[in-house]
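Need residues for this backbone.
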């Protein structure tokens, strides 16, 4: 007699205890049941376990009876749900299609933040497959500046290009309420990033070095005005750069060493670089600033590449000129492409991080472009942004989890 195939989903919930999964799957093994899917989540001391298995009609009754007794013995709740072959086949058919990762990041991720994001997800017909916390367990009392919280949603569904743009725009606007939201397609490239290129001034360091040099030269106000206009995209970067460097003429080169030693380093830089190196990322500084300061950061934090502008020096003083090609927005994008070729990777495996208008070309071509504490024009154009915490927030956009990277 041929027995009918049955597909059954069991859901177990209750206090987490050692050996629970082992004792339940041992029953399935004894009846040669085939496990089609399994997933477990723990919050505090509570466990939720789901198992989808295939068996035959002559065994299913005994399996459910033994599982029910074992659940009673363990003090947990168990629920059985039959699944039709048609439903199962449809579920399998959706595998790997139209998957996205939504990352919620901030000093605090509140219930209101989660409600707004998940509400937007539901309005666009997306289904949440999984939710996980990437940051460590949050203490009740924590310094506000040091605090960070990150939750990652795995979602599935079909979106038109128009809907994707609207969804991204909605998520980007949430930074005004203290939340950064990254929306990425969950594909092979997202899981295999290999190169990260950073702007330097106002990204890796909390200043514009040319403004610091200008202060020492007594032309701070003039240079800052030109810098601000360039970063807002009001004037061409190359033109503004030439104007600003000319104002530095006559400055003693020893001033650069003093400025380098006292650079205000952006929050999270050291932790970010330690972890990126640990997991094998290549890192580059692509800066419209100066090589002297880029090389200082390379020696201190271990960047692999530095491309910036070289100030001309004669008899120990700046001439007001520079040598070589200006590293502007076009050049940054070109260098990003060249580094990808040199490292033998696809552009989709590259990450670019910057804050100014001259960073937009490289942000737009990288697989993941992040506007970091950026000017309004840059943030409005970029696909992803971080405005709430430091540079180590980038680690969460890469999908890295505290409990794994801090071990």
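Answer:
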């Amino acid at each position: 007699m041929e027995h009918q195939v049955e597909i059954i989903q069991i859901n177990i919930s209750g206090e987490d205890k050692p050996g629970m999964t082992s004792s339940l799957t041992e029953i399935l093994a004894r009846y040669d049941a085939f496990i089609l899917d399994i997933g477990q989540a723990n919050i505090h001391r509570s466990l939720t376990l789901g198992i989808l298995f295939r068996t035959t009609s002559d065994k299913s009754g005994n399996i459910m009876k033994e599982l029910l007794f074992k659940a009673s013995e363990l003090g947990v709740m168990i629920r059985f749900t039959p699944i039709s072959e048609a439903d199962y086949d449809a579920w399998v058919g959706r595998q790997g299609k139209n998957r996205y990762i939504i990352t919620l990041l901030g000093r605090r991720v509140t219930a209101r933040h989660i409600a707004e994001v998940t509400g937007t997800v539901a309005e666009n017909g997306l289904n949440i497959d999984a939710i996980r916390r990437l940051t460590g367990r949050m203490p009740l009392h924590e310094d506000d500046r040091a605090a960070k919280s990150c939750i990652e949603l795995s979602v599935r569904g079909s979106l038109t290009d128009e809907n994707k743009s609207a969804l991204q725009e909605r998520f980007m606007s949430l930074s005004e309420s203290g939340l950064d939201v990254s929306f990425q397609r969950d594909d092979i490239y997202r899981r295999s990033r290999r190169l990260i290129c950073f702007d330097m001034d106002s990204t890796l360091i909390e200043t514009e070095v040319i403004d610091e040099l200008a202060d020492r030269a007594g032309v701070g106000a003039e240079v800052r005005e030109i810098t601000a206009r360039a970063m807002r995209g009001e004037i061409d970067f190359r033109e503004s750069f030439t104007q600003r460097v000319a104002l530095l003429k006559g400055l003693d080169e020893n001033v650069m060493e003093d400025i380098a030693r006292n650079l205000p380093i952006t929050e999270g830089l050291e932790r970010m670089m330690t972890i990126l190196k640990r997991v094998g990322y290549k890192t580059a500084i692509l800066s419209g600033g100066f090589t002297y300061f880029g090389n200082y950061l390379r020696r201190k934090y271990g960047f692999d590449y530095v491309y910036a502008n070289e100030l001309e020096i004669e008899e120990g003083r700046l001439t007001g000129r520079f040598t070589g090609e200006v590293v502007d927005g076009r050049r940054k994008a070109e260098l990003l492409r060249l580094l990808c070729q040199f490292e033998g990777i696809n552009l989709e495996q590259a990450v670019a991080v910057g804050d100014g208008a001259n960073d937009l070309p490289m942000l737009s071509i990288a697989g993941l472009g992040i506007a970091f504490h950026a000017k309004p024009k840059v943030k409005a154009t970029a696909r992803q942004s971080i405005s709430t915490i430091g540079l180590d927030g980038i680690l969460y956009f890469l999908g890295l989890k505290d409990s794994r990277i801090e071990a």
